User: Fold this.
Amino acid sequence: MLNSDLKLNTSIFNDDVEQVPIRKGFGEGLAKAGETNKNIVALSADLTESTQMHFFKEKFPERFVEIGVAEQNLATVASGLAAMDKYPFFSSYAMFSPGRNWEQIRTTLAYNDRKAVIVGSHAGVSVGPDGGTHQAIEDMALMRVLPRMTVISPCDAIQAKKATLALSADPRLVYLRLAREKTPIITTEDTPFEIGKGQIFYRPDGLAQVAIVATGALVAQALKATKSLEKKGIKVIVANIHTIKPLDTALLVQLAKETKAIVSVEEHQIAGGFGSAVSEALAKEYPVPMEFIGVKDRFGQSGTPNELIEKYDMGQDAIITAVMKVIERRK
Amino acid sequence: MQHRDFTIRELELKANEIRQSIISMLLEAGSGHTAGPLGMADVFTAIYFDTLRHDPENPFWPERDRLMLSNGHICPVLYATMAHAGYFPVEELMTLRKFGSRLQGHPHREFLPYLETSSGPLGSGLSQAVGMAIADRMDNGAATPRTIYCLLGDGELDEGNNWEAMMLGGKEKLHNLLAIVDRNNIQIDGYTEDIMPLDSLIAKWESFNWHVQEIDGNNIQEVINAIHTAKAVFEKPSVIIARTIPGKGVKEFERKFEWHGKTPDKEEAKIALDELRTLGGKIKSEHK
Assistant:
């Protein structure tokens, strides 16, 4: 059952559930955050509307900087603004920022201890027809390895908006990962959000056999998979881990102790990503069998988001298979 | 800061002392860069002892100018100048590159918070300076009295990130931004025009809508005059191409790219210090 404490969207299991691009929540959140935090400035690399920064630009043109197609400059100009007590939010496709400008982010932002928000839009294979060059599936690994970096990957547009507002109230250096495609709305305006706190979205009646820990746009897939699993008599917990760093280790250990079997779900390379972070934490604190849903050391290609999620084994069927496998391994 | 006005002769002697510190600290460190720091001693002296609005006794003074060193590897001249200007004791220069030192091998502001940025990886200082100049204009408007200095190497201009910054600086007409390029024509592998030709640097910067001056970067009066001229330019950012002699002040090191990335041994350091202390043989008793 959905966790009623979190006031989630009860129509999430319906086929006609409302769907909104996660990036849109960010765009609306930024425009709102700009009202209260006057230090916020926005920088775009020729993708203002795509990354949904146009809401902010229209409201605060004097606090918006158009950098052009130059992502290295995007990060380093942001560092200079941060040095003068501005709080820059800079966005592009995740493939280009933080993909192209990793060293600039490392040296001029993280090493320099600046506060800024790197907004990586269009992350994952679900970017779709643009093809593999535009599908960032390495970005969380690149960012979580940096000291001082927070990494957040919201599960829907409402959560993206809340994350943006939370970052406005609590400035830090953060990578905010967003997906392009319309994604089912799981949370509501009343769902709490706290940076670094995972959320149990779904609990079965009775004892759970597996905990699925998911992040980003695939949380909805994990939730939907529970129904098919229940038909097979398999009971699972689904937790939304929106903050990859700092990781909510206490919650993960609690889930590992409770179920003794974990499946991680992310739209990202398995190497170095969210599942890796979970396994690093559990290997030290409470090791249990674990299966990983994610891209298996491959690049993406053109297709519809659904075709690609299936092709790269990140859909409901793959999640169900992973759950069965981890139960088998635990025996 | 209300520092006193120095005469040009006094500034030249100050630059000489800074060069002596550079030689001593590099000898003690045993690794680092020699030619660039010596070549830029006059520019740093002119800025820190004449044109820069700063206060070493109140280093975080909010109204201060900002100085970004983009080519972090010439930090011995930055550290030495800052020490002589009063930011920290001159004796601390001998800790360069040692474990626990505030004077890291390349500048790191976590260790030495008076630095405006950390640098080492080349090509990203100018962009940061552009960001600072934009922030300054947002806060203080077009009439801002502040100058954001960015010191760059010429070899560093091989990095594409610089040209992105130049485009944006020109587009935004950032008159509060002043870049100073150390045009010493050397980089690690050889002479710049052999490794990756940069000329005409003047035409390149002008075509990016910058106000360009080319000067003798080892002439302190010229450096000061050029900075004043740059400050008087309102409609665009400024760049000063400072032609410097790498290794300047020590005849044995001058103009040799081999001295870009190595340090003097004891014997070489003694020759260098003797030459500096006698003002190149002009005086018999050593100048301290």
Observations:
- The mean pLDDT of chain A is 97.
- The two ends of chain A are 26 Å apart (CA to CA).
